[in-house]
């Protein structure tokens, strides 16, 4: 199971607070023990003074006369027993109700050490000894040893400590409840986000609402929504591409099928040969279309990954492409004039992509030029490398110059049987190379001039 931040936060806080509670309880215990001893030792000392007041000399010696009221004071509401012994200044025992001290050294050390806990007559007691000055009888001072059992102390200690423990427990419970509420409240936006995600219409790439989200979440939501929008755009354009491609393939395929069924009816070898020739021509058109579709799909996948870029020389690509397209130009009696720069045309780019770009522009110039026309192909070096193709064809009206880059778009009544994909490929490749494609009228306002201007960064002479 996945660990939730909320529960781990709550667990950590509750553990920390419980540990804190135990520490405070231990401190409370120590403080209560000290307080109890302080209060009751003070009372014990007062009792020593009282005992001195009750000391009485008689014919038999010294004794302490304690009335029942005095006894109640000494024994804290009659729940404790007390033991006493009185010594004179030389350490001679004068009187006592039990034997507490054996010798003078022990007596002196008890006076010095102050109150302490020990056992007398099988009970735990608190014992202390103090020198008390006297002005009565023949004595100047006495040392009184007094011990009392611990019942009242224990009762006081228990009551005080239980009160402290309960108060602290209540305070801790209240703090835990507050922490639980605060943490739960802090995590409400996450709960809401989870709900929004589950309720989201995935088929529509619905965006998640950003309003009201806390600042910590805002960048994630913004990024997520941006990603959704990009994916949606991509999916929609692929959908359009596939349906356009299917449509584009359907027409020539239907034509080929018609020819085939027509051919099956024919007996004459001559007529059959004519039909086969038409099918062959149709098939090469179809092959070209499929190749262009593949090139476009590849352009999208590969060129975006600029890992495939390498050093290429534009002049070289242009010369090779021209020699490949020469036969087409010769067929139409078109002269291909080539003005290649002597400056460096080394680029950092995708070789196959650049070949497609150059070939499509030259092919168009040949295809849309009248028979016997001229196509001029130029390259330019310098910081910005350029490739220019100019023809003397019908030209491209200004209002069509944007649209002709769309997939499958052809200007109405265009010559030939193109698929409308060539310039989409040109644009795709140019974009990947950060190159700019512009269209102008040709020389003397006749024909068309396509210029591809590569970004300075793609020039690779320094590489
Ligand atoms: N050099 C040109 N001269 C005139 N029109 C052109 C030229 N190049 C392209 N076009 C127009 O732009 C359209 C799109 O071109 P393109 O994408 O290469 O598709 P295709 O050549 O297969 O029709 C063409 O149908 C044509 O109408
Ligand atoms: Mg074309």
Q: Please give the count of helices.
A: 10
What is the helix/strand order?
HEEHEEHEEEHHHHEHEEHEEHEE
What fraction, in percent, of the residue positions are helical? 40-55%
Task: Please tell me the overall pLDDT.
Answer: 88
Strand-pairing-aware structural class: alpha+beta
Strand content: 15-25%
- Read across the widest sheet, the strand sequence of neighbours is 4-3-7-6-5
Q: CATH first level of one domain: which class?
A: Alpha Beta
Rg from Cα: 54 Å
Largest sheet, in brief, is:
5 strands, antiparallel
- Principal-axes geometry comes out as rod-shaped
Question: Total number of β-strand segments?
Answer: 14
Bound small molecules, by name, code or SMILES, are: adenosine-5'-diphosphate, magnesium ion
What fold name goes in the CATH topology slot of one domain? Answer: Beta-Lactamase
Q: From the coordinates shown, what is the CATH architecture of one domain?
A: 2-Layer Sandwich
**How far from one another are the termini?**
52 Å
Which residue ranges are poorly predicted, with pLDDT under 50 across at least 5 consecutive positions? none
Give a verbal description of the structure:
It is a single chain. This protein has 463 residues and is of the alpha+beta class. Among the domains are: 5-159, Beta-Lactamase, CATH 3.30.450; 306-458, Heat Shock Protein 90, CATH 3.30.565.10. The chain has ten helices and 14 strands. It has helices spanning 5-53, 68-74, 104-113, 151-186, 188-199, 218-265, 269-303, 314-331, 351-368, 422-432, and strands at 55-58, 61-64, 82-88, 93-96, 116-120, 123-133, 141-149, 310-313, 335-339, 346-349, 374-380, 386-391, 436-441, 448-453. The protein has a five-stranded antiparallel β-sheet with strand order 4-3-7-6-5. Strands 9-11-12-14-13 form a five-stranded mixed β-sheet, covered by helices on one side. The protein has a two-stranded antiparallel sheet with strand order 1-2. α6 packs antiparallel against α7 (269-303) and α9 (351-368) runs antiparallel to α10. The chain is rod-shaped. The mean pLDDT is 88. The structure holds adenosine-5'-diphosphate (ADP) and magnesium ion (MG). Magnesium ion (MG) is lined by residues 360, 363-364, 418, 422.
